[in-house]
Amino acid sequence: MGKRTLSFTTALTIGLGLALSPAHSNAAEPRVSVALPDFVVKLNGNLVENQYRQYPLLVYKDITYVPMTWYDSRLLGLETSWSQNSGLAISKGDVSSSYAPYPTEKKNPGRSQAKVPNFAVTINGRAVNNAAEPYPLLSYNDIIYFPLTWKFAHDEFGWDYEWSDAEGLAIRSGNLQTEAVKLPPSAGDNGVALFQGHYYFVETEGTTNRVYRTPERDSANKQLVYSYDGDSSYGFNKRVSFWTQDNELWFSYHVGGAIMGSDVYCKVSEDGKASVEHRGYLDFKRTSRGTLMIDQSVPPGGNNLSLVREGGEERDGSHVGDPGLIYGWHVTMDEGSDGYGGDDSTTVVGDDVYVMGSPYPIEQGKLNRIYRINPDANQTEPIVSSAVTGFKVMGGKLYYVKEQDHLLYRSELNGSGETQLSDHPVARWYGEWSGQVYYTAAEDGGAGGAFRLYQVNPEGEDSLVMQDAVESVQFADGVMVCKLADGADYGIKLLDAAGHVKMAFADHPSSVFTDQHTILYVSAEDQSVKRIELLDLPDR
Length: 540
Fold this sequence. Notes:
By secondary structure, the chain is mainly beta. The chain contains three helices and 51 strands.
């Protein structure tokens, strides 16, 4: 098959992850002879193994056909749908997927039989007469295979393809792609991160965890960042969590039991070595005067806010704030018993600290207020007199959810000008981005992680952004990264500031980490680590 013949007369077939309806009659469907390709085929750089693939590429009348499974079609930027009345619809969409190999232990025969289905077909909204096509859609292994002539591959879907006798056939669809990260197979079993050009991951041997880093473009060059031995007497907890704070990379892990154990917080230096900065149950924030420490150890106690000067020891920290308050806890009282939940809302703005506080000893009716503390003057001022579940400082404003109605409110930093924002009780998350306010609300009590994403509409009822249930939301490089709940068709959706979907990924992640222009995620299916490069997003 020469290059000229392929470029101008060859039809490529992209299969549709869509099985035929059981109600569809096979009586009038003729059978045709198909064969496996005897040349190399790559889909967006992924080598297709046809000998042991459940849905192999096929050749019919010297034309290459590609199976449109759910993942194959999304890999190539195509959306598909089927109905008994309308038949099959194929359209170019803002979708993507990592490559799915569909491996099987059974070797495919060199030649086989496929069917020519007779249902209605539309391509980008235009009807196609399959019976009259010289290269009709085919059905093989209960999956639709679709022949793409130049008018379909190039004109309708905007694809590029190349052929050479040495390299075979290469198809590139142009939609945003995922990229497999070449880390050790066990890297996805723990936390992963990407920071300033390096991947960070963990390898576990027995009860020893070793944190490594590798350059983005040289993953074979592994450098030890930190190592520690876990305490197996309480059951070894191998989990390591990475996050960025004040433009620095941190990670934490737990040692010991739930009460007598402690969390360990490590900071990674510029040379790629990590050091232990804090131990215990606590929260900490950097200020211009040093590190603010919020003691969240058990049993809880008041006067638990201290300031450790730069270079000083935690034991030498000086207490700040009203000593009659307990800070950094969300406190509940139920039939005479007190409940405490660690709160991480504490925020430093300039020289001031905003923190949740309650009287200590506990007094019903005065719990979970927002206070502003000036550490230098050691002045403590109540800002919001209502009980809140938590708060954030965003865009120079104070946002908080009240306990009495679980609605989202906004005020000035001094607590004045309070405005109700949400129409629905807020659950799990809220944020402000590009002047727009978003939040998640529970459906059916939030059972099974059924949280819906809403956009605040100041002129009426808040608008539902999408039907999919979301588990988490992050902002990265001009997009809102939504990790969808289990059961959704897609696993990740990228939204713009108006709440419109820019790209949907079929992959379902177990965790997502964002860094500048890149999304790093771990596949929930096989724990492999993959990345999405946002600089390649069309129409940025």
